[in-house]
Amino acid sequence: MDNIDIRKAVHNDLPFILNIYNQGIEDRIATLDQDLKTMNEIEIWFQEHQGRYSVLVAESKGKIAGWASLNPYSHRCAYQGVADLSVYVDCSFRSKGVGSFLLQSLEKTAKENEFYKIVLYTFPFNELGQSLYKKMGYRKVGTFKNQGILDEQYVDVMAMEKLL
Question: Domain of 68: which CATH number?
Fold first, then answer.
């Protein structure tokens, strides 16, 4: 996709980040969250994602097409070089390369912040997400059976990783 700019998220991006995340909640293919988030919740989340735990946005022709973040994997010091990631793309921009651009930039940001490994968790049935991660060099580590509950049903969660 042409004309995609990746940049660090700013406070004015929060309504778009919130909208895209809530799309992911409604789709039921990307998160175990079931209740739509509020602006207050996303502002708190954003404050926790400063410094090493960055948030990036993909912008196309003035519109936020998606976002990605580095998240703490564990607060134990032994894991300070490992980050968890989140990637969400606006439904109107999916399957157009936005996720790839975001992941490439997020990995660069991770290296700049002394992360050596990124892990992620996805649903085994999220084929679109898995194809993106596999294309970008992430490997399946394993599947946690009945790891969470979504809409009152147990769901499996697949772990993936990439050494940077």
Answer: 3.40.630.30
| Distance from C-alpha of 150 to C-alpha of 137, rounded to nearest angstrom | 28
Our count of domains for the chain comes to 1
pLDDT confidence band for 1 (50 / 70 / 90): low
Which are the contacts of 92, defined by CB distance < 8 A and separation ≥ 6?
none
As a whole number of angstroms, the distance between CA 63 and CA 125 comes to 29
Structural domain for 86, as ranges: 4-120
- Residue 144: inside a domain: no
**Phi then psi dihedrals of residue 13, to 5 deg:** -80, -15
SS3 at position 135: helix
CA distances 128 to 15, 22, 30, 64, 117, Å, are 25, 18, 10, 20, 22
The answer to whether residue 156 is domain-embedded is: no
pLDDT tens readout for residues 12-69: 999 999 999 999 999 999 999 999 999 999 999 999 999 999 999 999 999 999 999 9
